[in-house]
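Usage

Read records sequentially. Each one opens with the input sequence:
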Amino acid sequence: MTGILDLTFLGNKLYDWLIAIAIIVITFIVLRIFKFVIFKRLKKWAANTKTSWDEFVLGIIEKSALPLLHISIVYFALQTLSFGEKVTNVLHVAYMIILTFYIVKIIIAAFRKFVFSFIQRDEDSESKEKQAGGLIAIVNIIIWILGVVFLIDNMGYNVTTIVAGLGVGGIAIALAAQAVLGDLFSYFVIFFDRPFEIGDFVVIGDDNGIIEYIGIKTTRIRTLNGEQLICSNTDLTNSRLHNFKRMERRRIVFTLGVTYQTTAKQLASIPETVKEIILTVNKVSYDRGHFSGFGDFSLNFEFVYYVEDPEYNTYMDSQQAIYLAIFSAFEKQGIEFAYPTQTIQIDDPQSLFNPLIQKPEETNTDDN
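and closes with the structure output:
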């Protein structure tokens, strides 16, 4: 029996091969028992919890950690055997590539989960997930670059030159593409600070419309006229932007003027009349109304009310109902609205009608 175990295969005794195989088989059995007994119970427990992070961790373990653990067991079991330097280097490189792949995969999955968890706390998460696609793509590229540098370093190569080259190249790219990088950082500001989101109605200077798409460099706005307005992200973050989607209610101020022929009693009744009209309109709350001043041709009143709905159509419907009711009420009370007029006062009206009298010329006659 001892003679059989001393047989050599690929530079190693059969006894050493059996030990390596035993390590692999025993650990695989233990992992299989863990997966089908303990892991299943953990998954059932995670399904009944409120948070989704436990399910995420178990998914990472099942899809990445367990496969990596199986490969690591095989690798370290083979390390107990003696191979040539070339074979050992090949096994080491292969294992480091696999290890880097799974580590990067886990980091990317964790970052993706963090971003989506951050997004899903708010409403309209589907559109925000689309918006996050650019951010995730950029971070994935950075993580893969760092993963490759990590792999090269663990393979025994000096990465100082590579890192220095990346730094010099990064500076050159930054100088050559300042505008693009500025828009990129503005995209991060828009994503994390969220001054506006897809579907918001915004006003920027003389332009207005609905946010249709937020990209890495540009944001697209569908204007009320129907055309698509494309703005750089830097322009949007540097501008004063009115976001009407986040309006909770509208404050409306309007004035009206009546003629100077209006009596004092009628003037005193106007604030109460308008107040009663405003209070009868749905989704409207009255704030104040006052006789505000004497104009050139009118007696002026100022009224303030709130529309308790941000929808523009609701605001216009409420305003129309109020204006029509005011017009009808003033018509019944005999109150006239003022409009620009001028009165010319003449001190001596009769002088306008006096004819121009011309005296006849006197002639001198000589009596002969």
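Summary fields computed downstream for this record:
- The chain is about 55% helix and 15% strand.
- The beta strands are 8-9, 12-13, 201-204, 207-214, 218-223, 228-232, 241-243, 250-258, 284-294, 299-307.
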